[in-house]
Sequence to fold (384 residues):
Amino acid sequence: MAWLRIDWGLYIAALGLSLIGAVLVWSGTHADVGPALAVRHLINTGIGVTMAVLLLRVDVRWIRATAPWLYLTGLLGLVVVLTPLGVTINGSRSWIHLPGGFSLQPAELSKIALCVGLAMILAEGRDTTRPPTWREVLTAWGLAGVPIVLILLQPDLGTALVLGFLTVGVVAASGAARRWTALAVGGAALAVTAAIRIPLLDAYQLDRLLAFVDPSRDPQGIGYQTQQARLAIGSGGWSGAGVGQGPQTQGGFIPFQHTDFVFSIAGEELGLFGCLGIIGLLLFVVLRALWVALRTDDPFARLVAVGVAGWLLFQTVENIGMNVGLMPVTGLPLPFLSYGGSSMFACWLAVGLVAACQRPHDRSAPRRRRSVPVRRPAALDTRR
Fold:
């Protein structure tokens, strides 16, 4: 039965992170809005778990067959937000308002679309013993370049970086020559350097990007935010102040603490031990995806799992890094923990993809024929 073959470790780790996130969201918002956001976080978690379990029931061959449509649907969502239907929040035109007071961020779901799209391009139609040709690699980069450009137009630098890192990982895992990975990394470094030096960014955008190094560049915005987050995390000590007891958290000194800076709540109220537990669970999910990639014989499933692992790893490192002042503030949520429906749904769909990719041959393997005993003809009776 499929239900007995669920990867319980993967699902339990992701569910544990989501529930910890609900506690942190409650702690950071209950003084202002009561338990409302924490309850919505739990509702989003329930919807995400349901989607992940339903996806587990889907044959991986069906996912592979619908990959072009999933990719095109992701692009359509990114185009729609740039039309009058899109809504600007915090300086980024990344949202679509839905009936019933809900909203959707297509950039989050584009991560799923790109995972399956890249796997389709790099795994289909070639011998698995042959590395991708330069045409196939360029096609994959072109496939990634379209959503990256659309996301930069919003602008959403954080998600664009996630898609770039995801693409590098999938192309490298496909067996492409190392020079392609080196060229991609070098090109990204040159693009970031050019954006800073020329400059391609406005002065206020550049100040926000570099404020993690020098908070005085944006003392009323990102500089203040990063200083307060570091102060909260540093004051947590080994075991933290306790849930609902952190002075910085309960005082409301950190803007957007329940979304981008939810890790600062963990640092202040759960302490170093709590933070290490959260990081351990996040790394378990990433390593589990890589374990699936190593064990599967299906090239499509392997590249999908690598894409999910690269996406979650980069997003985790970037979010925690910007909380502790080691990375620029890009607005990326912490997977499973930050408040936000679109992010939660995307993360749980990623869990469902990884789980579905673990056993692609269970359903596709031909059935064994039952052995039927051969009845030999009875010996002729020569007696009269």
